Amino acid sequence: MTITATPGRAVLEEACSAVGFEVAGAEALRIAENQVWRLPGGVIARISRPGQMPAAVREIRVARWLADSGVPVVRPIDVEQPVEASGYPVTFWAELPPHAPGTVMDVVEVLRQIHALPVPDGLDLGALDPFVRLAARIDGARTLSEDDRKWLHERREHLHAQWVTRPSGRPDCPVHGDAWFGNVVRTAAGRTLMDLERFSVGPPEWDLVSTAVKLTTTGTITADEYSEFCRAYGADVTEWEGYALLVGIRELRTVTYAALHAARHPEWAAQAQHRVDCLRGRVGSRPWRWRGIM
């Protein structure tokens, strides 16, 4: 896959100049809704979307709070940040040593730590919004037909109405917001939590459903792995009456993520369309075993 770095490179140069980091030799690691660059000297720069400065400020503060609370988490570099460069918030992080994606059990151990934390005083985590950017993703999914986009918008509105009146479950607590084993990596020293952009206060079931759908929707974990996850956490979210709602939202987020990026990367268009077809009942029943696009 060819990574297109513009306008990220110019933004990166501006941000690095502001904090005194060397940008020569910077390597683009990921260009998606957010951009991730490796700088010389073991620094990772993360460029967020315009308008996301408050979220970037919160992400830095959350990382420091989690570290102080004993949660293994990525470490912000000790510079004045975030930096705003041409309207883009940029944050700087210590590069992790060699690592691999975490396991289901790594995810559950971190979730147990996070969900047991009290909501911090003096740090506004904000309320979980599982619908953030969904409308914009659908609008930007130009490889899909107008009918498919209309259906996705209607699906979003239907799920949102259900979310407002969702069943009660476990008490709200700090939640990661995107808790899957790509965001909990394993190094020689142990596990590390990453990607704190969606960290907030909300129902812990939202974090749990991210693993459950790996069994029920995509078939990427086994029934035994999921049983171990439930035993370790002490609950099975699939038994909760609001489970179908959370699955619907999580599936819609996964579908729209693929559809948005397919507009820029034609090689992903078939997978994006396949995911839509699954939701619309044009394919067989779950699990659908979707392929990753990144």
How are the secondary structure elements laid out?
Elements: H1 8-19, E1 27-31, E2 35-39, E3 43-47, H2 53-68, E4 83-85, E5 88-94, E6 100-101, H3 104-115, H4 134-139, H5 146-164, E7 173-175, E8 184-187, E9 190-193, E10 200-202, H6 204-216, H7 223-233, H8 243-262, H9 269-279
Antiparallel strand pairs: 1-2, 2-3, 3-5, 4-5, 6-8, 7-10, 8-9
Helix pairs in contact: 3-6, 3-7, 5-8, 6-8, 8-9
Describe the structure.
Helix content is 41%, strand content 14%. By secondary structure, the protein is an alpha+beta fold. It folds into 2 domains: 20-95, 2-Layer Sandwich (Phosphorylase Kinase, domain 1); 104-279, Aminoglycoside phosphotransferase (APH), C-terminal lobe (Aminoglycoside 3'-phosphotransferase, Chain: A, domain 2, Alpha-Beta Complex), CATH 3.90.1200. The strands form 3 sheets. It has a 5-stranded antiparallel sheet with strand order 1-2-3-5-4. The protein has a 3-stranded antiparallel sheet with strand order 6-8-9, with helices on one face. Strands 7-10 form a two-stranded antiparallel sheet. Helix 5 runs antiparallel to helix 8 (243-262). 36% of the residues are buried. The model is unreliable at 1-6 (pLDDT under 50).
